[in-house]
């Protein structure tokens, strides 16, 4: 008997229930990745994620080869390719991790219908991409939680599934053909400081974080922009090169406040995934409608470009936006304050910002990106929809030394200490020499526009 395992956002051999089940139930297994034309056509796969993905596939192939197997890569329509591989190998079963997006649900439905016609069976494994599957905990009478705290409480009380080791051997039928496993070299437009992908790197990062980072996590250090003391595991979680279930288990074993704080962040990830699974439309429409008449690419083109390029004249905003362009990643505090600046201070549609983030973020994730944007825009699950983060105060508070700004905004490198957050206070002659832009908006005016628009007295 032959089974196919279709890899999606779960590019690992450790703790992979579909792979383990396929190996246990069949004599031969085809580990398959389809470069899905539909995903390429949406433009969702930006160069940073494409390059990281290439690393992940190369590493997955290596890890499968260590176990006697290999990765089969195909391109085109995912359902057509799965059917073709199943026909070529006389496979009767397809194993797949359950996804949360509208697209993932549609893919699952199409695969199920196609396999029913062809006489095959689809086995969907839940709780592979998140620590707990969406829907594992629900409030009475509703299909998802809209408030984090009660979700967190119930989530913590659940026993997650067991963590699985990698399969010992994977036997792939000889005759099944594969496109070459892509490398990142051919991908153009990649951010120069992009991290490397793959399960080997992801697991090493996790082990190092458990050893050296996690204990101090949450003592305020995770908000210190210059300190850069978060795990940077988000791209690995997005591509599934580490397992959220395994991270939760290991962190709980470690114990302590830092580990607890870290597990809470992983719960945030599950929280957003269960919102999107229940409300797939929230990827593009307000979760809670506030009837905002946002400024758009047509009416605020100049402001949007300044924000995207890190030229708003607010150093902390510009530093974070430039980090995004350079690394394909941004610190969480940076994401919060740049998103607040775009949506509240410039009053620009959150979708404009979410699209730019998704284009560059290596961890760009439909659930986490869109719903965090909605949280900041006050159209999502936040209980304080009209809160505005003041970029000057955020700068002094989360980058008190100014080191983060000087790292990313070289025009201000000569300005010492926290003064870097208010360049407009520098002598006019020095300002002219530095060549750093003037603020695109007056903060008080921006705030007044937002309050008017939201009908706040
Ligand atoms: P750590 O602080 O080490 O946290 C560990 C893990 O917890 C993260 O890797 C992540 O998986 C999870 N996590 C932490 N905070 C959140 C959160 N608020 N929501 C969901 N999961 C969280 N995260 C993404 O993974 N992809 C995105 O596309 C994304 N877009 C965002 C957009 C905005 C506007 C904002 C405010 C936040 C966004 N986040 C996103 C959440 C968060 O900023 C990142 O997960 C975090 O900065 C990643 O760095 P880290 O791995 O070092 O995080």
From TrEMBL:
Residues 1-130 form the Photolyase/cryptochrome alpha/beta domain. Keywords: Chromophore, FAD, Flavoprotein. It holds the Pfam family FAD_binding_7. Its cofactor is FAD. Residues 174-196 are annotated as: Disordered. It comes from the Bacteria. Belongs to the DNA photolyase family. This is Deoxyribodipyrimidine photolyase. The lineage of its organism: Bacteria, Bacillati, Actinomycetota, Actinomycetes, Kitasatosporales.
């Amino acid at each position: 008997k032959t089974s196919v395992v279709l890899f999606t956002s779960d590019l690992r051999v450790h703790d992979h229930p579909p792979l383990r089940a396929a190996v246990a139930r069949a004599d031969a297994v085809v580990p398959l990745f389809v470069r899905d034309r539909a995903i390429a056509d949406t433009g969702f796969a930006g160069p940073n994620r494409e390059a990281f993905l290439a690393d992940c596939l190369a590493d997955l192939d290596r890890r499968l080869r260590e176990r006697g197997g290999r990765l089969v890569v195909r391109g085109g329509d995912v359902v057509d390719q799965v059917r073709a591989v199943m026909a070529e190998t006389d496979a009767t079963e397809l194993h797949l991790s359950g996804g949360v997006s509208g697209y993932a649900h549609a893919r699952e439905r199409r695969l199920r219908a196609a396999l029913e016609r062809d006489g095959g069976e689809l086995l969907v494994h839940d709780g592979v991409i998140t620590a707990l599957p969406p829907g594992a905990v629900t409030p009475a009478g509703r299909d998802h939680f809209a408030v984090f705290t009660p979700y967190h409480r119930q989530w913590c009380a659940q026993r997650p599934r067991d963590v699985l080791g990698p399969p010992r051997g994977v036997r792939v039928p000889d005759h099944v053909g594969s496109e070459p496993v892509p490398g990142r070299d051919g991908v153009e437009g990649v951010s120069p400081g992009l991290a490397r992908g793959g399960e080997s790197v992801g697991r090493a990062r996790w082990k190092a974080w458990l050893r050296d980072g996690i204990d101090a996590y949450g003592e305020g250090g995770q908000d210190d922009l210059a300190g850069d003391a978060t795990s940077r595991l988000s791209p690995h979680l997005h591509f599934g090169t580490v397992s959220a279930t395994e991270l939760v288990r290991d962190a709980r074993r470690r114990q302590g406040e830092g580990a607890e704080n870290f597990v809470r962040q992983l719960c945030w990830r599950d929280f957003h995934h269960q919102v999107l699974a229940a409300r797939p439309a929230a990827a593009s429409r307000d979760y809670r409608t506030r009837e905002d008449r946002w400024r758009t690419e047509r009416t605020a083109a100049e402001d949007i470009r300044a924000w995207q390029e890190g030229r708003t004249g607010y150093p902390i905003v510009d530093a974070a936006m430039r980090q995004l362009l350079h690394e394909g990643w941004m610190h969480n505090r940076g994401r919060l304050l740049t998103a607040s600046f775009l949506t509240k201070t410039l009053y620009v549609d959150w979708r404009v910002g979410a699209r730019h983030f998704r284009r560059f973020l290596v961890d760009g994730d439909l659930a986490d990106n869109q719903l965090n944007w909605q949280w900041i825009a006050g159209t999502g699950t936040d209980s304080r929809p009209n809160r505005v983060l003041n970029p000057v105060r955020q700068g002094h508070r989360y980058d008190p030394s100014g080191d983060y700004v000087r790292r990313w905004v070289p025009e201000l490198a000569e300005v010492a200490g926290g003064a870097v957050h208010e360049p407009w206070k520098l002598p006019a002659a020095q300002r002219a020499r530095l060549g750093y832009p003037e603020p695109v908006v007056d903060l008080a005016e921006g705030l007044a526009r937002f309050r008017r628009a939201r009908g706040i007295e």
